[in-house]
Amino acid sequence: AERVKKRKGFLSGDFPDHKDAVMGPVAKAWNPSDSLGKKHDEEVERYYRGVAAKINLHAIGNVGRGGMLENLLGLLGDKVTGGGFDQGFMTDAKDRNLRMLWYGHMFLPDFGNLRQFEADTDAWKIPTIITFVRDPILRLGSGYNYVRLGARSEQHREDVVTFLGNQTLADCIFDEACAAKNKLRRMCSIQARYLCGGGEECFVHWHTVDEENYVEKLGKLVKVAKRNMERNILFTGVVEEMQESMGALETLLPTYFEGIEVESESLKKAGKEGDNFERDIRKGVALNVAKEYAKPTVEERERIVREGVCWADFEVYEHARKLLKERIGNRGCATRRKGLAIFKKKKKVADTFEDVLKDAGLNKKYKTAFLDNGWDSTPHVLRRLSKMDLQAIGMNEKEMNKMFASIEKMVPASEKKVKGKKIDKNLELRKSLNYGRMYVDGAAGSFQFMKASFGGDIPLKSFEVVFGECTYLQKAEAAEESGASVLVVVNSDNGDLFSLPAGHDLTPDQLDDLPVIPTVLVQLSALKMLTMLEEIDPFAKAILIPQQCSNHGCVPVYKSDKSFMSHFDATGGELHFQGVDGNEVKMEFVASTFGITVPDEGELVLSDPLDACGDAAPSDAAEGGMKGKVAIVTRGGCSFYDKVSAVQKLGARMAVMVDNEEGSVLDRIGVTTAQLGEIYLPLLDPRPRRHDPVVRA
Q1: Claim to verify: residue 370 and residue 454 sit in the same structural domain
Q2: How far is CA 452 from CA 88, 457, 517, in A?
Q3: Is 108 domain-assigned?
Q4: Are the CB atoms for 529 and 443 separated by under 8 Å?
Q5: Contact 627, 654 (CB under 8 A)
């Protein structure tokens, strides 16, 4: 790490010394030895979750092996020493606008609510999280061995052996009683649990639920962990691929990491399997431990995965490897530094092969990858390449289009064949349309969009909704690089929609290099709904439907768009609930023209007052308030907007309006465009029936 440069105005420090640096839940890494065999881990965890709501994140060890990363990261800034911060230090750091890099282990962070400096929350942004994962079985073996060979005191190690036994891991993992006593499933899901965070969905323990529920809950935990890796954690490195990980970090955040020596002996050593095991065995001999650790064989590893002992950690570990591979492939960071020469030695190729790549402007970036795949023989071979082939080596949509265009140029006119192909007139018409509506799967509301002056055709398929920020072109380029299907830009004011421009004074080269990702602008009123959608239903799908407008209205022109629209748009349905007599009651409803996804189920709570006009509150009978529940409101007294706003402030998930007059027609309720930007709850309007069965229930 001798080439790492100090950054002026940077501070670095570790969590144990400065546990006031970041707010979040904390849990304990070790249980007292007298609790072994007496308390379940979840009891201890529940206690620490309960008392730690206002305690700051706490570190429980060094980063990496033997403090390797700690030593590297500590060189980046003027290291802060001492125990914790005082108000004077925080004020000074804020006034000097110092950048800070904290390192250390943390347990169960609440990824969505992390802040720097509890005393000055508003002044500090959410910290950027970088973490590493390790091969689950190697990590399990190291942890299993450590508590017997190197942890704490000799008395503690003896207690562990007394209560938990001293079988080798290879023996214990296939002994049901030993595996249960040592809680190996929990030990081998700890990385997934950390990446999941501090939420209730991350609190899963196999011996307190039946097997079926455990598998289902663990699946949800892994899903949240993967989502955090993609959205709330900037970068997840892989210990076994440390050189590639550090190279990617250096490329991703050069301001912080430029100059980290990835060829240092400590980094090379970090990727070697068995490093900690051999060290633990040496300690074990000194401690007169009877049995030597036996590393699982390939067959045993497969059985461990198959039987689910390490399933959760393997899921997040492989996801981290996938994300790292994608980052290296998409950004080219694998070839940016001398220490990252992971490709085969270059060899001489035919001129025709290089001509194709040079013509596309991709020779420098992809020549080695083409060589490794044997795509260098003749133009005939190149013409057989598929989009999937090019995606596999990291090409984005824009690069693939350039590649195919260059290949096409190499085909002599005599070889070109005009294939009889029926032109789909409706598809061609769809491509020409610039206006349409954006529909979110299961949402009550939809929004107009206008296609940008640049970018490709609106895709026929749906896409997942995520967020970003920067200029139009930067947004498009970043979205395209990340493999996004569509870029949706929210307008900054309530003005009319327009076709987003590429920018002023673009050079011919810039015009030729414009992003090809489909890009659209939607109304500002969509922002509130889309923002809450990210929080409430982060995996929601959306689709863009181009529409042709006339005096009779705007309608889709393509067949699949019509079916998608009827599937995605939550216009109405049936409301089922238990009546006062215990029987199921069914009522038809129509949904409002605004609001996020309509939930499949929910607890009904009466508003107080029932019309939700003025300062509404949950009724006295409602236990636990209105948060996340379905608010029942009655018609009249104030506007629909006022009713929805009142229960929305109380945290309701949806509103249902009752007390309609019998014989009235069901119409979809709407609000003004300006009001659309303030509310996000869907409002259901059931068909009227006598005696208000919803209120009575």
Answers
A1: no
A2: 50, 10, 10
A3: yes
A4: yes
A5: no
Band of residue 120 on the pLDDT scale cut at 50, 70, 90: very low
The C-alpha atoms of residue 167 and residue 213 are separated, in whole angstroms, by 30
Verify that 317 and 356 share a domain, yes or no: no
pLDDT: which is higher, 515 or 504: 515
pTM of the model: 0.43
> 23 pairs with which residues across the strands?
56
Query: Which of 383, 415, 447 is where one domain is finished?
Result: 415
DSSP result, 467-495: ---S-HHHHHHHHHHTT-S-EEEEPSSSS
Strands (E), 5-86: 10-14, 78-79
- For the chain, give me the number of helices (H) and strands (E)? 29, 19
Q: Are 16 and 104 members of one domain?
A: yes
Which pLDDT score, from 0 to 100, does residue 316 have? 93
pLDDT tens for 576-624 read 777 767 777 777 777 787 887 788 788 888 888 888 887 766 655 455 6
Structure tokens at 594: 């605004």
Phi, psi of 632 (to 5 degrees): -95, 120
Give me the amino acid identity at 54. K
Whole-angstrom CA distances from 192 to 245, 271, 303, 359 are: 19, 21, 20, 45
Joined together, the tokens standing for residue 199 give 């939420």
At residue 307, the pLDDT reads 60
CB neighbour list of residue 682: distance below 8 Å, 6 or more residues apart: 443, 444, 445, 570, 591, 592, 594, 595, 596, 597, 598, 654, 655
What count of residues does the chain have? 697
Q: Give the closest residue to 517 by CA, choosing from 461, 466, 459.
A: 459
CA dihedral 392, 395, 396, 401 (to 10 degrees): -110
**pLDDT per position as a tens digit, 510-567:** 555 566 678 888 877 777 777 777 677 666 777 788 888 776 677 888 877 776 655 5
Residue 365 within any structural domain of the chain: yes
- Nearest by Cα to 542 from 588, 490, 620, 610: 490
Q: Are residues 371 and 455 in the same domain?
A: no
